[in-house]
Design goal:
Structural class of chain A: alpha+beta
Largest sheet of chain A: 4 strands, antiparallel
Number of helices of chain A: 8
Oligomer: homodimer
CATH architecture of chain A: 3-Layer(aba) Sandwich
CATH class of chain A: Alpha Beta
Shape of chain A: globular
Distance between the termini of chain A: 36 Å
Helix content of chain A: 40-55%
Strand order of the largest sheet of chain A: 1-2-4-3
CATH superfamily of chain A: NADH Oxidase
Radius of gyration of chain A: 19 Å
Number of strands of chain A: 5
Low-confidence stretches of chain A: none
Mean pLDDT of chain A: 97
Largest interface: A-B, 80 and 79 residues
Chain lengths: 200, 200
């Protein structure tokens, strides 16, 4: 599928065919593409919790104000991030480069993130945002639709997925076979109010 | 361009043809696609500051530890967000839907974001992350390459672009004609360490 078409046709879908099952290969393909999304210093800070079991999807739907797309979707991806990925064997992020530039990168990386709690969190959200859009566009090209979500009980979902203390949940993306077309786009702010040249 | 190919071939490029100029229509197309990226409650909280003037690119390069891709790229997009977009005429985000559901959405939106300073910031980073990936993939399909960046002096760049008090800068994306191929990917963490089923 052409990328421009995928960007234009991607919409947040609220109703999926509950009986459709995605294959293992399809799910793997989406995740293999997701991890080609960029991250700062290549820290690959995202962690993806995938759910396809109906009983868990139903529970997650309850924790999402009962939103039906969560129980109806074929696949739920909870996009989390490891806030300390910058400090967990960073040499693996540049395994393929010579030792000298690698060591310089590691030093710079640690200096950038050490004790910078807000920056670590910003990085989690940025990385997961980029990966989420990759997932949604990849899904589109495979004949699926998606819905990005943050309207759920983060604390309860965190407990449910056994979220480690130094991780956080950024958002959720549900993927499945669309059961109902979306309404036309709700209301687009004109480009002239969103784009500025040189400065505000 | 096929979307799977675009996702696979997109790399962070560090050297661009400094003499290449993008047309107004090309820049407009990228921005028109960027604003089709999803945002929570359709708040369209991103704001895009675009820069093509050489003197400003050079200044931004200085503020980015001298990174040459900033001065060489044809287009710099500084992805900012309005932290209060949820409270600025939210009725326009659902102009096309009936009044009753629109009012319910506005009430829910305000309840979600009012006084939630960290959430407003998270939303800025998530929204800009998704839009950044749209920009980078759209650029790829138009024969361009890109580099997402956060390694710059946020405070000085904020002053330079006259960033309003209730906005923040999430990141920068530079776009241009690639002058040098990137090295092979530095080191990919195996999927098995990034993906979890049902829980960690």
């Amino acid at each position: 599928m052409d990328i421009i078409d995928a960007i234009k046709q991607r919409r947040s879908i609220k109703s999926f065919d509950k009986n459709h099952k995605m294959t293992y290969d399809e799910i793997k393909q989406i995740l293999e593409l997701a991890v080609l999304s960029p991250t700062s210093y290549n820290i690959q800070n995202w962690r993806f919790v995938i759910i396809t079991e109906q009983s868990i999807k139903d529970k997650l739907s309850e924790l999402s104000h009962g939103q039906q797309q969560v129980s109806e979707a074929s696949l739920i991806i909870i996009l989390c991030a490891d806030l300390n990925s910058w400090n967990k064997h960073p040499e693996r992020y540049w395994a393929n480069i010579p030792e000298e530039p690698r060591n310089a990168l590691i030093e710079s990386l640690k200096k950038s993130y050490k004790d910078k709690v807000q920056l670590q969190r910003d990085e989690a959200m940025r990385s997961c945002g980029m990966a989420a859009q990759t997932i949604m566009l990849a899904a589109k090209s495979m004949g699926y639709d998606s819905c990005p979500m943050k309207g759920f009980d983060y604390e309860s979902v965190g407990k449910m997925i056994n979220l480690p203390n130094d991780h956080l949940i950024s958002m959720m993306v549900v993927v499945g076979k669309k059961a109902k077309n979306p309404s036309p786009r709700g209301g687009q702010v004109p480009l002239s109010e969103l784009v500025f040249t040189n400065k505000f």
